[in-house]
Amino acid sequence: MDNSNNPIFTAVSSSVRQVSLLLRCIGFSPKAEVQITTDGLRFSVEESRAVQGLAFLERSLFSSYTFNAASDTATSSPNETTSSPSFQINLIALLETLQIFGLSDATHSSSRNPNGGFTSPYAHNAFNTPALAATGGTCRMSYPYLGAPLSITISEAGVTTTCNLNTYESSTDAGFDVDESIPLQRDALTLKIIMRSTWLYDAITELASTNPTMLILTASGHTTPLFALEGAGGPFGDSVVDFQPEPSRTPKSGLSSNETGKDEQARAPWVSETFTVLPGSGTRGTIRQRYKFAHIQKAARAMDLASKVCIRCDSQGVMSLQFMIELSRDGIGVGPARDAERLNGGGAGGAAAARVSFVDFRFVPLVDEEDDEDGSDKENESFCVDMNGSTASGQ
Amino acid sequence: MRFKSQMRNVSTFAKFCASLSSLGPIAWCRLTDEDMRFTVLPEKGSQVWSVLKIETVFETYSLQSAAPHNTINLEVPIQSLQRALRSASGATSASIRLTKKNNVPMLSVTIVTTTFSNGDSVVGAGATGTDDEFGDFDFHADTDDVGFGGGLGGLPRERETIITQDVPVKVLAMQTVEGLHEPSTPEPDVHIYLPGLAQVKSISERFTRLATATKTGTTTGAGPRLELSANMHGSFKIALQTDALSISSVWTGLVNPELEPTNYPGGSQELRDHPSTRMRILGGEHGENEEGWARVRIDAKDWNRVLSVGRLGVRVIACFMNETGLVLYVYHQGEEDNGEETCLTYFINSFST
After folding, report:
1. Among A91, A192, B98, B252, which one is least packed by beta carbons within 10 Å?
2. Would you call A99 an interface residue with chain B, using a CB distance cutoff of 8 Å?
3. ipTM of the modeled complex
4. Which of A160, A167, A168 to mutate to test the interface with B (most CBs of B within 10 A)?
5. pLDDT classification of B237: cutoffs 50, 70, 90
6. How far does the CA of residue A167 sit from the closest CA of chain B (Å)?
7. How much is the pLDDT for B146?
8. Which domains does chain B have, with CATH numbers?
9. pLDDT for the residue B212
10. Domains of chain A with CATH codes
11. Residue B40: burial class (beta carbons within 10 Å; 0-12, 13-18, 19+)
């Protein structure tokens, strides 16, 4: 209250749509955790502690961004960047507000092209739509003091809409930290794939047609399938999307530019830009994890929108999908090499350039009940045997 | 009892009926020598009283009955009438008349359409006849195929279709409708021209969705309610309050129409005492005071139904009776308008808090 002259946070964005699109990627649950930091706004959504979505609105998305962290509010921050205590808001309400001027549903379903490929993500990049210029109203956000409503003001063509979203104290006492919610052990990664997001989106869409209950991810550095996604548990049977290796006109060269070349047999699926499998001991070079399909589908909007995705798994099976979403409207292309580099850098990049934003998803794997107490190595072994039996069908 | 008329502006009439049908299924229609009146009195929600000038939609108009002014009162299933009229879009001519079939009174809509068949159809066999002419006209390279059809009288390629749509109606006796009157309303506190209804509607619908999306399970069965308010300084506001948020959209720079002193028996003196004059003063010099706002609370869904009148392409004056109700005067302006306007009047009650 005492800070009313000096609000904790104010920001102005002239492109409501970019903010809205990023947030809609994680709009699968009504409650969102918000944390304001000096670098931007961090929105996090989770469901039953098994799936988590995170969108980071960088300060560069806003034409003006002011954050005054009071000294007493910054104590809980574990990072060196100061941040305010997080609070919860109704994300659905926020999204509806941001769309108030019929920033209509960007229903861009990627269409296949006859050559078996997919529409380039650059072609349907929603931010390039010409109609946008007319509809990008000005959006002003402010959070005057702790416990105050988050106020959003949108002005356009003689109409001013003001929305005060009530804020709720967040459920966790400790400051919000994504790595604590669903931990991904960055030092124990077993899998890392970077590829175009549309490939993943199409695979998931394809699998969804049999209405499966779980998604089985299989990856191997040597044997086929190198990378396969299986939708299992559906009422009409299972289906597998197998990403084939590059047809080897020059055998054993593969995508040799990748760092996978530890041994000469290392191969990568054709679609991937980076393909690293580092299975733990006793797994016979194959990673196999199961996830709830409905959870994976929550990332569908991000998959559709993003240009690239980085898939990572750690030794415990936690999967991270990091989506790179291009926000550029000025047509300056972002080189693929640079993208890969950025994705390699991992982390919700606080230093990323203005024209790229990231949306993160984390998934907790399903664990077999009977194997539960046996530890992960045994579990993987049993998977592996299981897999060898079915490999033939994968081809 | 006789009614027969040639329609000339069917799409307007269809839109008009569509706007009415969003409020209720049954309309009371009164035909007289001067005008055509439609009234929808739903059991719940807003009612609309409308006057349709005859020349707005009718070319010819003949009416005959035993009652004074040749009045005929009908009960019309308005949606059926609208559907019947919709099939007349693009017709060359359309007429409507009151008939009786098997002792059931009907409004019978007769539509004549002309369809151009393409060369593939059986009728297109006549095209062999035009082949010669084709040669004759060959020099006029810029004349297109359709031009030939027109030039030749279009006989070989044109087909006429006659569609008749019967809408069963009920004839109401004079004494049945005698008791029906427009609601009497107090003088408005605030009157204002509304902004474009399409915009108001899209925002209202967004608010309605917000209300349902953020509703917690414990709230009562009543639908979401919007608070509308306006002042005499050109501002109009739609607001919504729920557990999770409060949101409002404000339009500024709108026009408050001047009242005509001749319409009041007390003349300009009465205008000085008019509630709107008081509200203008209460609003302060630039409308900054909260007291200058007149408010009503209305059912969001009902309001959205009312706003569907926006498809007529209209001018709307809203009259706010603070905490009591809202009257919307919706004017449709035809192309060749001579001050004679079709007017729909909506009466919307305010809910108490």
Report:
1. B252
2. yes
3. 0.70
4. A160
5. very high
6. 8
7. 45
8. 2-113+162-178 (3.70.10.10), 118-156 (no CATH), 190-349 (3.70.10.10)
9. 82
10. 9-101+136-179 (3.70.10.10), 184-394 (3.10.150.10)
11. buried
